[in-house]
Amino acid sequence: MQPELTLFSTIAGTGSALPERIVTNHELAERIDTSHEWIVERTGIHQRHLVSEGQNTSDLACAAALQAIAASGIDAVEIDLVVVATTTPDLVFPSVACLVQQKLGIVNRCPAFDLQAVCSGFIYALSTADNFIRAGQARCALVIGADVMSRITDWNDRSNCILWGDGAGAVVLRASDTPGVLATHLHADGRYRDLLHAGSAPDGGGCAVRMQGNAVFRFAVRTLDEIVDETLEKNGLQKDDITWLVPHQANIRIIEATAKKLGMSMDKVVVTVDRHANTSAASVPLALDTAVRDGRIKKGDTLLLEAFGGGFTWGSALIKWMV
Ligand code: UT7
Questions:
Q1: 258 ligand 1 Cβ < 6 A
Q2: Contact yes or no for 76/192 (Cβ under 8 A)
Q3: pTM listed for this prediction
């Protein structure tokens, strides 16, 4: 009998989706006490895409998934795992993953589930799917990060409403005999709920993000600094082995700090925060898809994906680009 090949996973195709409606900083400044200049200077954000009435996380997730499926050249029937990272599911249940499975007509009864790690969600989902494939429990996974943060934003809270956007990004992850996903590293520290959380307001006024932005900012810079070190060290890499940094798009100043840590010039960093704002679990796969489609990311490149978010959660993925 032939010995089983060691299984690895590789990204076979990417996709993304943004709602059509664009809201500029100037439009926000008409409604709350802020300005385009302040938002650009403190965050790098110029605009965000927001859903319209009736548009849900699963709609964006499906649109991104269809692009990823087309780009990878697979037949949807081959998908044997669906993982959706989201903090803003359409419903409490069924999961967005089950809704996606139904909407895409994947009738092969493969497992489908959501995973919640807020802005780090896509890195967590990618790591989970990679482990399913390495364990031989899946061969072709649809991994999606999708969020409609506008539904849990208090649009009168100027301290964080200016940050959020809606969107989705997806990848098809396939089993391969050479590693595309070289490594993933995940962390969480649950002690900081007071700094960043969303839940029912004590006054019963619905669920909205509450954040002590400055403290979160400092924690994010520090932990992303640490995860860069950890990822390079544990994988025997030097800073200049990384071709592209694909960071979570929370704030241009956080992204610049991570690039500086890597000694990377900003033209090797994928930046979409100016156009997309912070789309939570969608931000990393949206940035990835952007740079794949415009031809910046090429076969043989080594990518460092990283994210930090509520929980706190943070993580990285080291990817060899194979397509
Ligand atoms: O993705 C999940 C993780 N989240 C993040 O990584 C976000 C991390 N945090 C941030 O990106 C930044 O902290 C913010 C962009 C949210 C805020 O920027 P900051 O430079 O940390 O500002 P700050 O909170 O220290 O506030 C500075 C000043 C304050 O006024 P005073 O007290 O100095 O008079 C705020 O009241 O800016 C004021 N301010 C605003 N002014 C105009 C706060 N929000 C606004 C606003 N427009 N929207």
A1: no
A2: no
A3: 0.97
